[in-house]
UniProtKB/TrEMBL annotation:
<dbReference type="InterPro" id="IPR002142">
    <property type="entry name" value="Peptidase_S49"/>
</dbReference>
<dbReference type="InterPro" id="IPR047217">
    <property type="entry name" value="S49_SppA_67K_type_N"/>
</dbReference>
<dbReference type="GO" id="GO:0006508">
    <property type="term" value="P:proteolysis"/>
</dbReference>
<dbReference type="InterPro" id="IPR047272">
    <property type="entry name" value="S49_SppA_C"/>
</dbReference>
<feature type="domain" description="Peptidase S49">
    <location>
        <begin position="420"/>
        <end position="570"/>
    </location>
</feature>
<dbReference type="InterPro" id="IPR004635">
    <property type="entry name" value="Pept_S49_SppA"/>
</dbReference>
<keyword id="KW-0720">Serine protease</keyword>
<comment type="similarity">
    <text>Belongs to the peptidase S49 family.</text>
</comment>
<feature type="region of interest" description="Disordered">
    <location>
        <begin position="30"/>
        <end position="49"/>
    </location>
</feature>
<dbReference type="GO" id="GO:0008236">
    <property type="term" value="F:serine-type peptidase activity"/>
</dbReference>
<keyword id="KW-0378">Hydrolase</keyword>
<feature type="domain" description="Peptidase S49">
    <location>
        <begin position="172"/>
        <end position="320"/>
    </location>
</feature>
<dbReference type="Pfam" id="PF01343">
    <property type="entry name" value="Peptidase_S49"/>
</dbReference>
<dbReference type="InterPro" id="IPR029045">
    <property type="entry name" value="ClpP/crotonase-like_dom_sf"/>
</dbReference>
<keyword id="KW-0645">Protease</keyword>
<protein>
    <recommendedName>
        <fullName>Peptidase S49 domain-containing protein</fullName>
    </recommendedName>
</protein>
Length: 678
């Protein structure tokens, strides 16, 4: 049965709401002599204020924000008979590249990474969060689509995106259409998403196993000592564990505490989600995980799988479900082709316009030649200014998926976000991670929406440089510096800090932290002493962050769009047009390398090649370290090779290391074994 979701917005789905409890309206906040647990004495006394119009916007939308995962579930509302008839009429006149046979199965092959920005270009495969969610929404309303075939490979995304995708799969099933999931291998994330479909098949010999979750941290001080590298680190915030990586040889109690909390959040979410999907008790799920079955028959006997079948058998069954002829191929439509079908065909687009800006990756200042891998402040600011000046745009949804990065770039974007918020509602939707600079951006919005497992916060500062004097001495390398100015050699790596330089370094880091913390307090309308208690570099799961008032609502981008409509005085049942401001252009080389592990190293290679000026040794050694070594060992081999060559400073190498993935100094270094990075 075709249908539409209540509060539907241009192909996106929006949840039903429960009242938001005890949310204070943001306004004037003060703090007097709040204790600074980072060891820097008292927090500064300050007064922070929020413009009255921002108070009123928050007051209008927050009472309807969802406060639990159950509240964030999407409601399916069938479309009227007239609307369905009008859709069928429009499909008669569809262009050839938007046509396919009635009864077709939408094929969703998901594996590897899924980008936040909408993919464009001839070589695009359409595998992005907005295009996948839009495809699911259209398919529920498309009379030509009978169901979804969800084929899963190893997923390289965080739990928040997995939660969001699973929510939309569950919503699709409410339309009365089927979802069949198949996977030849996988772990917890793949199984969690597959279970949302209701039917899960694996071959008898599948490489599928649920082992549970383990969290680990890596510490480099012992390696640095052996290399003769002295890390000089100023860390503000006792939970800013990136400093621990450089300074310690083992895990601190503070890091152990916060990682345990995150691990428990992931584990509890998995157990609860699987229990609900398979109609089991949570204890049964825990017992199943602890059994660590390696025979697929054991999962089937326990009621954790629908059946053991090879893909050819699953596809043959789908052909029968769709009344296909035995001698004909399965009627299907691929995501790439289906992305060309307009949501307006199904009445999912209205006249009122809401802009969506997607900021994904490490935050960098200036210009970058690597598209799609980072957040370029100049580009985001340009988009924000366009939204601010466009009168036809009623509200902005800011989608953030970033562990942070350049402090200045983060502040410049935050300022521009606040300027947009002075003229129209701004709602932030946080994906897998919004930490450090990522959270800095989000806190400029009127309200923040996060998934239950979004990595949130990390309001803290780590400043560091490496003293490589011993490395240089061992290698017989000499670097002579002639300078003018008391602090001209502050960040030089050939010696350690002088007393004056160390004092300046510490004071500048403390000032950066105070500025970040106080702006968070002002933006969130919270007392500084409260923010001091939840900051200090600590990261929170989204659900826990809600309890600490770091976010306002649990849900995905559909929830954010609903709040944006509410804030812009757009009727809840009225459709809107989403104006996507951020795109990722897919080139031929990227299309060829798609799915290859080499893609992750392209930014690193570019950085190294540009620095080495053709040095074969410099590019060869680090690449071997990254491809063949461990994460920590690879980073140190890269550092040692580059600085000994003399072509890069330690700071350059550290930045090169950050490009392809998680910045070393911005996030706790931890992995959830058996399920990829948290």
């Amino acid at each position: 049965m075709a249908g539409q979701v209540r509060l539907g917005c241009g192909g996106q789905l929006v949840s039903a709401y429960a009242p938001f409890s005890n949310r204070s309206i943001r306004g004037r906040v003060t703090s007097a002599d709040a204790e600074d647990d980072s060891g820097n004495g008292k927090a500064s006394t300050s007064v922070a204020s929020i413009p009255q119009d921002l108070d009123e916007t928050a007051a209008r939308i927050l009472p309807e924000a969802s406060t639990s995962e159950a509240d964030a579930e999407l409601e399916f509302v069938p479309r009227s008979g007239g609307a369905q008839t009008w859709t069928r009429f429009k499909l008669i006149w569809a262009l050839p590249w938007r046509r396919f046979k009635k009864g077709a199965v939408l094929i969703l092959k998901l594996g590897g990474g899924i980008t936040e920005k909408k993919k464009s270009g001839f070589f695009s495969d359409g595998k992005s969060m907005p295009q996948i969610i839009e495809a699911i929404t259209k398919a529920a309303n498309d009379p030509r689509v009978s169901g979804i075939y969800l084929k899963l490979d190893r997923l390289d995304l965080g739990w928040a995106k997995v939660q969001e995708l699973a929510r939309h799969i569950r919503w699709f099933r409410k339309s009365g259409k089927f979802v069949v999931a198949f996977m030849e291998g996988g772990g917890e994330k793949e199984y969690f998403l597959a279970s949302a479909g209701g039917e899960v098949y694996v071959p008898p010999s599948a490489g599928f196993s649920l082992k549970g979750f383990a969290v680990s941290g890596s510490f480099l001080r012992g390696v640095l000592d052996k290399l003769g590298v002295e890390p000089q680190v100023q860390r503000i915030g006792k939970y800013k564990s990136a400093g621990d990586q450089l300074l310690r040889k083992d895990m601190s109690e503070e890091q152990r505490y916060q990682l345990t909390a995150l691990l428990d959040a992931v584990y509890d979410n998995f157990v609860g989600g699987i229990a609900s999907a398979w109609n089991k008790s949570e204890q049964e799920v825990k017992d199943m995980v602890d059994s660590c079955y390696f025979k697929m028959e054991d999962y089937l006997k326990g009621g954790w799988l629908t059946g053991l079948r090879y893909e050819s058998e699953v596809l043959a069954d789908l052909k029968k479900r769709t009344d296909g002829k035995e001698d004909k191929p399965l009627k299907k439509v691929l995501l790439k082709r289906y992305s060309k079908v307009r949501p307006s065909t199904f009445g999912l687009v209205g006249k009122d316009r809401i802009a969506v800006i997607r900021a994904s990756g490490t935050i960098v200042g200036g210009e970058s030649s690597v598209p799609g891998d980072n957040i370029q402040a100049a580009e985001v600011i340009k988009q924000l200014k366009k939204v601010r000046g466009e009168k036809s745009i009623k509200a902005l949804v800011l989608r953030v998926d970033s562990p942070g990065g350049d402090a200045l770039a983060s502040d410049l974007m935050w300022h521009e976000i606040k300027r947009v918020a002075e003229k129209k509602p701004v709602i932030a939707s946080m994906a897998d991670v919004a930490a450090s600079g990522g959270y800095y951006m989000a806190m400029g919005a009127h309200a923040i929406v996060a998934e239950a497992l979004t990595i949130t916060g990390s309001i803290g500062v780590v400043a560091a440089k490496f003293n490589l004097a011993t490395v240089y001495e061992r290698a017989g390398f000499n670097k002579t510096i002639i300078s003018r100015g008391r602090y001209a050699e502050l960040l030089g790596e050939s010696r350690g800090f002088t007393d004056d330089e160390l004092d300046l370094f510490e004071r500048s880091a403390a000032a950066a932290y105070t500025d970040f913390r106080d702006k968070a307090a002002a933006s969130r309308g919270l007392p500084i002493d409260h923010v001091q208690g939840v900051a200090q570099g600590r990261v929170w799961a989204g659900k826990a962050a809600l309890g600490q008032k770091l976010v306002d609502s649990i849900g995905g981008i559909t929830q954010a769009i609903a709040l944006a409509k509410k804030a812009a005085d757009i009727d809840a049942d009225k459709k809107v047009r989403l104006v996507e401001m951020s795109f990722e252009q897919t080139s031929l080389p990227q299309a060829i390398l798609s799915g290859s592990s080499l893609v992750a190293f392209l930014p690193l290679l570019q950085q190294l090649m540009g620095a080495s000026r053709g040095s074969s040794q410099l590019t060869r050694i680090p690449l071997q370290a990254w491809m063949g070594g461990t994460e920590g060992g690879g980073a140190m081999a890269l550092l040692e090779a580059a600085v000994l060559e003399g072509a890069m400073s330690s700071q350059d190498v550290l930045m090169a290391q950050q490009r392809p993935g998680k910045p070393l100094y911005l996030m706790p270094d931890f992995k959830v074994d058996g399920a990829g990075n948290l």
